[in-house]
Amino acid sequence: MRIIAGTARGRRIEAPEGRNTRPTLDRIRENLFNILQTRIQDSVILDLFAGSGALSFEAISRGASRAVLCDNDRSAYRTEKQNASTLGFEKQTEIFCCDWKTALKNLQQRGDKFDLVFLDPPYRMTDLRQVSVQLEDLIAEDGLVILEHEAKQSVEFGTGFIRTDERRWGFCGIAFYRKTEDSRTDTEADG
């Protein structure tokens, strides 16, 4: 795998060994970042189920200010650390080895807010309502959740979000979600 564009264009990154992760293919990453190109500059990224970290590293290469990566697989964690070091992105990344519940709870307690959230859970994980509920407080006002899923599979996402777009490339589907107006109002009222 390689970084497609930006300051690290053409630089090679590694994928974790084993079958516990599924790296996003280069052509899908390229299509995805063509869609997101106006949102990347200076954005803050959360990459949940990060695997190799390819999505975060691509975003940083293209101008994102920082990224938080999380995966509970130790091989993925080591690979993310290695890739951050190889690319010189250690200062722009924070990498956690824990499950998604622990990561989101810790980020909520710190008061973090994210412009873009990449979700690339195992394809067998099709009920993401709990994930979405915990994400509501972590999304910046105009933030976007980008969910990679198996194209033929339907995925349940929480009522606090609305799907704004969906794309399919072969076996891979990408769904884009924003917070609903109601959840934005609730969050603003709480803050």
Task: Describe this structure as you would to a colleague.
- By secondary structure, this protein is an alpha/beta fold.
- The protein has a single domain (26-190), classed as Vaccinia Virus protein VP39 (Rossmann fold).
- 34% of the residues lie in helices and 26% in strands.
- It has six helices and seven strands; from the N terminus they run αβαβαβαβαβββα.
- The chain has a seven-stranded mixed beta sheet.
- The longest helix has 15 residues, at 26-40.
- The protein is globular and about 40 Å long.
- The model is unreliable at 184-191 (pLDDT under 50).
Strand order of the largest sheet: 3-2-1-4-5-7-6
Q: What is the residue-mean pLDDT, rounded to a whole number?
A: 89
- How many β-strand stretches? 7
**Percentage of residues in strands:** 25-35%
Give the class-level CATH name: Alpha Beta
Keywords:
seven-stranded mixed sheet; 6 helices; disordered C terminus
Brief characterization of the structure:
Helices cover 34% and strands 26% of the residues. It is of the alpha/beta class and 191 residues long. The chain has one domain (26-190): Rossmann fold.
